[in-house]
Amino acid sequence: MNAPHSTTASTDALIIGGGVAGLTLALQLADHCDVTLIKPAAGASRWAQGGIAAVLAPDDDFAAHINDTLAAGDGLCDPAAVRFTVENGPRAIDWLLECGVAFTPDSSPGARYPYHLTREGGHSARRIIHADDATGRAVVEALNGRIARHTGIRVLTDVRVTDLIQSRDGACQGAWGIDDAGRVQRIMAPHTVLATGGASGLYAHTTAPDPASGHGMMMAATLGARLSNLEFQQFHPTGLYDPDGPAFLISEAVRGEGGRLLNEAGERFMPAVDSRAELAPRDVVARAIDAEIQRGTSGHVWLDVGHLGADAVRRHFPTIVAHCRQRGIDVIRRPIPVVPAAHYSCGGVATDLAGATGVTGLYAVGETACTGLHGANRMASNSLLECLVFARSCARRIVSTPLPPPATMSDFSALNPKADVDLPALNRLRNTMRRAMSQDVSIVRSQAGLSRAAATLGEAQAELQKHSPALDHPASRRLWQALSLAQLTVHAAGQRRESRGLHFSTDWPEHASTATPSTLTLADLSAGQPRR
After folding, report:
1. Which UniProt keywords apply (predicted)?
2. Which of 113, 114, 220, 274 has its CA 20 to 30 A from that of 199?
């Protein structure tokens, strides 16, 4: 049934999310069809510091980038997705340059490419194009500028999507949401694209101030989409350690330019762990840091850049230098305290090479999707590359797909922003979820810990439905989605009886004989669907 006090709008393509994937897709579609873009104030893309990996220098090649990505993915990448992404990378960068993204130039004698290329963990060559140490911000601002000037894109900044609309034949027909005035919004669309980000917000410590908690993934699962590789949550090795301050990422490019990790005694430890030292893949570095933290008493390790020279540090990392100075840290004079923090979801909604999910009319791009590119561990700076390549591919698929005839919607119990809900209780349950995930579903896992987390999450979800049985308030609906995804993540981790990439189990510390992606649906959630 229709929601009371709701408004209805329609569009050819509805894009939910305003990061690099969503913005790119909107611009690629806008010359061909009517586009509505729901763009929240926050998003992970803006916080991306390091850059975008692509084969740009004449002495680099596709095979090297492909092999580096496959190695970082620890046997679980889809080779076809890797090749597709890498081979389409240079054209995506050319398009960003046409959009006016101000990448850092390289005017040094003998420069291999007009723009400075840096190197990050897992890469065998310098292939990371960047805009100083604020690449995400530079790309988002350039794309937002073009969107603001395009008359074919309707931008909504005051709507929070809570559910997708499904027709009686199972197709996605748009989305439901709530605007800032508390009105229910129904937006009908034959093509709906989730660009809603990952699930780092399921954890207590993250690298972004306002991380997503996998709402898009669960909305897709509710319509029947498959979720894949949820157990592979990447923890960035170097989040700024400041228990009393906001989250902040110390870019991998700092290590790419020669930053050294030190333990409490001031000694380097990575050369004894891996021949690539600080440039080993993120899962290796994060586990090594975690081990040092467990052996020490400070709760962090140090990242030293003083030996690089003040001029080089200020030139390459102005954002990091300025932010740390505001937090009372002079990175030239003393090392930066760092700790691993939840950063990127390698798993998500399973898609093909055009972002299609298997649910008619529903697509997913960016971190909310699982394309097969990352496998068991994402290599540095492949994330924005994936956003660009798959958004452009998704646009081509949508443009070439004829618009279907209007479908009959299934019934839907109305959202009710005025429903009685105990918000402090919901916040307490969310914090319970984050503590459980950080304690037992983090860098190092065990079956005992996963069982403990499953019990805690199940109890939290049962309590949620006591506080808000109908789940009709947007806050309770979103918490149900987060708790459900957390439970599915625990389930996926429990099924993987090996250690691979980002999933390390003390019970099964070795690889299994075969590498198999995990796949789950809503039916794997023991709590079932919410009552509506």
Report:
1. FAD, Flavoprotein, Oxidoreductase, Pyridine nucleotide biosynthesis
2. 274
